[in-house]
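Hi all, posting the design record for the shared folder.

TITLE: backbone redesign
STEP: 1 of 1
STRUCTURE INPUT:
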């Protein structure tokens, strides 16, 4: 049967596995849009305060997500070998490592909180920022715990579990926003703080729901036995941290690079900054689709790697890139085709919409580089070869991206489109080098076995 495996078979299996991850990722984007929409309609001050806090904490959120992704290939490899007790022990260590990270992040958030007065924000916003910051900080710690459970269930190919939990929590969050922001159903009108409390409650639910599924489900008995068996965990914590740290740093560097580029955009003017924000928000939808398929490929590659099925690994990496390439054409094409109506959804300003339309070409070009780097960064994650990602990420996001955007925007006089023309150069560079490293790693693994 194994010899009859074809690219078509692998492609079908990949898309089935990726489907729930895609739905879950789109759910995250949707609730983010809903939060912004509801807070924005409540008041301008509240929207400004929320924007400040969310941008300040985004790097910590993304880095934490990247760190948790290191657990998936380890669990998938154990699952591929049929070693469920080891997979359960990996969950134990995944939770440990994420709790350790939470402690570090809590210290960082505490320092930030006591320096909020010194960050140059308007005095009138501080009474809104401070309580919201506290609630958001606690909710971020909840996401770290949820991420560990999610990567575990994804690793054993039960991707529908986290999908169902995310969708349910999103519905809870939106209802909670309506009730607590505006003071409905007998609750007091809490404004921005109500939005934060609603998000915290929804994230606490995700942790409770995932823990209930894992620990009180008879079908998870073997995994729970491995979780409880301390002898199974020997030496695992270091391995989990070793895998997660480079991925977390890579995603953190990418986020930090985009955040620094916003400073360059701000120098161009208010209209440019608004247009940049609109197009960045739209591009997040495409990014979520690519990362969902790539995450599914990492799960499959890890499982095949555990069984040393190298033909299947090669076919999976091909299928992932073909799928993402197809999504790139579909997603980017749709965005460009409906760009004006999309921008009008986010802004009523004709100037901002017109400025956003000038970003169509660099937006289209950078989608291909983004898809390439996401596909092969995750293929490397599946092969547990994550350290080489770091130098490539640093060169791409800092040495190339920021200087290129600056040169195109200012010395070359291209303005905001120039900022965006830096993206296809840096992301394509990263994608090509991730592909080269993947091919070398794959050939070495296959050679060593044979």
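Okay, here is what came back for every position:
SEQUENCE:
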């Amino acid at each position: 049967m194994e010899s009859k495996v074809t690219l078509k078979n692998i492609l079908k299996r990949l898309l089935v596995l990726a489907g729930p991850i895609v739905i879950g990722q789109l759910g995250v984007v949707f609730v983010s849009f809903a939060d912004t929409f509801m807070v924005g309609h409540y008041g301008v001050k509240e929207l400004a305060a929320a924007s400040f806090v969310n941008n300040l904490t985004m790097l910590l959120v993304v880095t934490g997500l990247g760190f948790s992704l290191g657990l998936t290939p380890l669990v998938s490899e154990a699952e591929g070998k049929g070693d469920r007790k080891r997979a359960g022990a990996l969950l134990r260590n995944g939770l440990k490592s994420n709790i350790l990270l939470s402690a570090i992040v809590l210290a960082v958030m505490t320092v930030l909180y006591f320096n909020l007065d010194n960050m140059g924000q308007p005095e009138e916003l501080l009474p809104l920022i401070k309580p919201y910051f506290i609630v958001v900080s606690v909710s971020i710690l909840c996401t770290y715990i949820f991420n560990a459970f999610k990567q575990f269930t994804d690793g054993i190919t039960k991707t529908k579990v986290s999908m169902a939990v995310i969708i349910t929590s999103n519905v809870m969050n939106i209802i909670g926003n309506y009730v607590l922001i505006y003071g409905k159903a007998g609750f007091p009108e809490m404004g921005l703080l109500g939005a934060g409390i609603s998000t915290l409650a929804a994230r606490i639910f995700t942790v409770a729901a995932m823990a209930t599924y894992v620990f009180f489900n008879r079908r998870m008995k073997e995994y729970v036995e491995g979780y409880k068996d301390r002898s199974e965990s020997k030496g695992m914590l270091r391995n989990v941290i070793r895998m997660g740290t480079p991925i977390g740093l890579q995603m953190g560097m990418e986020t930090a690079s985009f955040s620094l580029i916003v400073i360059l955009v701000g120098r161009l003017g208010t209209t440019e900054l608004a247009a940049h924000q609109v197009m960045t928000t739209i591009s997040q939808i495409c990014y979520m689709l690519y990362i969902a398929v790539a995450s599914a490929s990492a799960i499959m590659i890890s499982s095949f790697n555990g069984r040393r099925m190298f033909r299947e690994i090669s076919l999976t990496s091909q299928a992932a890139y073909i799928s993402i390439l197809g999504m790139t054409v579909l997603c980017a094409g749709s965005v460009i085709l409906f760009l004006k109506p999309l921008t009008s959804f986010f802004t009523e300003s004709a100037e901002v919409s017109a400025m956003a339309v000038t970003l169509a070409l660099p937006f289209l070009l950078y989608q291909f580089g983004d898809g390439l780097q996401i596909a092969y960064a995750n293929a490397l994650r599946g092969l547990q070869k994550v350290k080489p990602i770091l130098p490539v990420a640093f060169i791409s996001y800092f040495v190339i991206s920021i200087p290129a955007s600056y040169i195109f925007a200012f010395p070359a006089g291209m303005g905001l489109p120039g900022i965006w023309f830096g993206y296809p150069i840096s992301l394509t560079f990263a994608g090509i080098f991730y592909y080269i490293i993947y091919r070398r790693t794959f050939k070495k693994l296959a050679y060593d076995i044979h």
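COMMENT: The chain has a mean pLDDT of 89.
Let me know if anyone wants the other runs.
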